[in-house]
């Protein structure tokens, strides 16, 4: 197992784990059980995304592509008011 990425939070970690699973890469999110103890532990480095050695390079590439993605032009609403109307 190789440590390939440190997610910002549990939500990002779970989302990336699902994305990698969709690409056929089994990932493990180490440290997720420690997130509840953030008040007592240093907040940095608690989470780690780990994959099998043979999947490490592809997984890093997929995460880099995800982090570098830009929204498609035209996906913005026509009348964006910076206010959520419910």
Automatic annotation (TrEMBL):
<feature type="domain" description="DUF2007">
    <location>
        <begin position="1"/>
        <end position="66"/>
    </location>
</feature>
<protein>
    <submittedName>
        <fullName>DUF2007 domain-containing protein</fullName>
    </submittedName>
</protein>
<dbReference type="InterPro" id="IPR018551">
    <property type="entry name" value="DUF2007"/>
</dbReference>
<dbReference type="InterPro" id="IPR011322">
    <property type="entry name" value="N-reg_PII-like_a/b"/>
</dbReference>
<dbReference type="Pfam" id="PF09413">
    <property type="entry name" value="DUF2007"/>
</dbReference>
